[in-house]
Amino acid sequence: MAFDHRKYVAFKPVAKKDRRWPDQVIEKAPTWCAVDLRDGNQSLIKPMSVAQKQRLFDLLVKLGFKEIEIGFPAASQPDFDFCRKLIEENRIPDDVKIQVLTQARPELIERTYEALEGAKQAIVHVYNSTSTVQREQVFGLDRAGIREIAVNGATLVKEIAARYPDTDWTFQYSPESFTGTELDFAAEVIDAVTEVWRPDQGQPVIINLPATVEMSTPNVFADQVEWICENIRYREHISISLHTHNDRGCAVAAAELGVMAGADRIEGTLMGNGERTGNMDLVTMAMNLYSQGIDPTLDLSGMAEITEVVEACTEISTHPRHPYAGELVFTAFSGSHQDAIRKCLARRKEGDAWNVAYLPIDPFDVGRRYEEVVRINSQSGKGGVAYVLERDYDITLPRWLQIEFSKVVQKEAETNGGEIDSHTIHRLFEDRYLKVHEDWSLRSYDLHRDEEGVRAEVVVGSDTSPVTFEGCGLGAVEAVSDGLAKRFGVTVAVEAYDEFALGEGTNANALACIRLTANGQHCSAAALAEDTTSATLQALFSAVAQAVGTDMPAAKAPEAAEAV
Ligand SMILES: CC(=O)SCCNC(=O)CCNC(=O)[C@H](O)C(C)(C)COP(=O)(O)OP(=O)(O)OC[C@H]1O[C@@H](n2cnc3c(N)ncnc32)[C@H](O)[C@@H]1OP(=O)(O)O
Ligand SMILES: CC(C)C(=O)C(=O)O
């Protein structure tokens, strides 16, 4: 059997009984470093052109990144040229540090510094793999041999930097494949490197702990980070950075727990592009902080621009469910979600803390419109349909009509199988409830109230054959119903009716909705008019028309009607 779990060996947890990170709470944003232009770029089918790199670099600067890994200049001419272009064309803001990656190999380190000549400040990031698998199978070296590569690399980084005293240098070292490295050995190599660099003597140093391959649950990674923070020399002079990958789908969680475990700095890419399943997604992690009321120190309000630039540069489209950025992440199709969102938004007052069911953040903050929040398909319910009519057409439906109309929409959704847009919902409402048949159109009414009640005189019908009738009752609806019975023999029993004043921007001022039985048949209708009485009477006639058919029943002669 090819699919055989016995092929795999479980990752051993860290034997750490004194872990403190589970009780920590993240209260401020870490230092961010975007590695889109290096780790992100090295994973693309078609690496970015210089123009694409420039576009992405400009975006990263605009978002507020102060540390940006721009490439691996010793690896390829385009990476080298891009680095030169940024420096020579003075495109790096004074408060931004560029970072470049190099293997711990002399010729590559030399070439890296050539690329950086003239930079005001830069981070030189040198790495070699320390994991058991790479030691044994890739390098064929023991621990001492691997440590020597790191020390030689660190020594050369320091020596060559001294040739360029006008640049403000930060040194960064990564024990690549840290997650597959024994902790004591990782600490041993880190100490050997920092013994060369001496952060305690003023040299800025970053030690980056990469989950080059994510191998365990994030809690194990947090244990590893905490252990390193507790066991390396010069910890207080070092910035501990994390660089997680997403092989198990937990890169963001691992980075978050890693910060709780003591890390100061996080590397990642926008939208998580990167090797295999990607790097840690900076957008998600920063927005997670934002949603907890913590300033992420990045401005991610222009999410549409972010996704557009990332897509253009990586040629990878954004998943519609991508946290915070996907097209559908603020949209509810399902009925109970829509109902809850509608109720929460309606109760929300300006200045309230955000507390809306199903929406972890206010979509508006990332440039999304409330229009997208509720969309209708066959999974939707009355709340969603009512929300769309209210939001887009200022039509408020009474609860009984919401229930009834949502069945009309549901049927349409089941028939067409997909989404029903707002325009179609409105058309369905018009067709089903607002249609006025000529014979039953209200032409005029006159209501007279005295101590006996209301006396109504109503004219309905077309220009050419208007019909006038009269009736009386306790209110207008009862009086007109009385008239309908006398003149047309239609017995009306009103079960529910509601009137609403409409907001500005509509032609009509009032909406009335009515449900009744006419000659024993259940019907409902609505009407828009300039005043509430006209709307109510028209709704009554439209409902009656449904019961008796669009052909007006023969009117009784006024004398016969009097006799009824
Ligand atoms: C986890 C990460 O993402 S690390 C970053 C990885 N990114 C990249 O590799 C993208 C850019 N890299 C490249 O373009 C190329 O690898 C280059 C130009 C840097 C080097 O190219 P080459 O020397 O032709 O080939 P290659 O990368 O296969 O070299 C591997 C050799 O370097 C050694 N090596 C690999 N990594 C390191 C390192 N970090 N430090 C020291 N030596 C290293 C290997 O053991 C191997 O040695 P061998 O030739 O004695 O067997
Ligand atoms: C070079 C290091 C930081 C890296 O990219 C990784 O390990 O994934």
Automatic annotation (TrEMBL):
Domain Pyruvate carboxyltransferase: 30-304
SUPFAM superfamilies named among the record's database cross-references: 2-isopropylmalate synthase LeuA, allosteric (dimerisation) domain, Aldolase, post-HMGL domain-like
Localization per Swiss-Prot or TrEMBL: Cytoplasm
UniProtKB keywords: Amino-acid biosynthesis, Branched-chain amino acid biosynthesis, Cytoplasm, Leucine biosynthesis, Magnesium, Metal-binding, Transferase
Pfam family, one: IPMS_D2
BP term (GO), one: L-leucine biosynthetic process
Region span, Regulatory domain: 436-564
Superkingdom: Bacteria
Keyword RNA-binding carried by entry: no
GO annotation, cellular component aspect: cytoplasm
Matching CDD domains: DRE_TIM_LeuA
Binding site for Mg(2+): 39, 243, 245, 279
GO molecular function, one term: acetyl-CoA C-acetyltransferase activity
Gene3D superfamilies attached to this UniProt entry: 3.30.160.270, Aldolase class I
EC number, UniProt record: 2.3.3.13
InterPro entries: 2-isopropylmalate_synth_dimer, AIPM/Hcit_synth_CS, Aldolase_TIM, IPM_Synthase, LeuA-like_post-cat, LeuA_allosteric_dom_sf, LeuA_N_DRE-TIM, PYR_CT
Pathway the protein contributes to: Amino-acid biosynthesis; L-leucine biosynthesis; L-leucine from 3-methyl-2-oxobutanoate: step 1/4
Matching NCBIfam families: leuA_yeast (TIGR00970), PRK03739.1 (NF002991)
Subunit field text: Homodimer.
Record function comment: Catalyzes the condensation of the acetyl group of acetyl-CoA with 3-methyl-2-oxobutanoate (2-ketoisovalerate) to form 3-carboxy-3-hydroxy-4-methylpentanoate (2-isopropylmalate).
Recorded family membership: Belongs to the alpha-IPM synthase/homocitrate synthase family. LeuA type 2 subfamily.
Record-given protein name: 2-isopropylmalate synthase
Record gene name: leuA
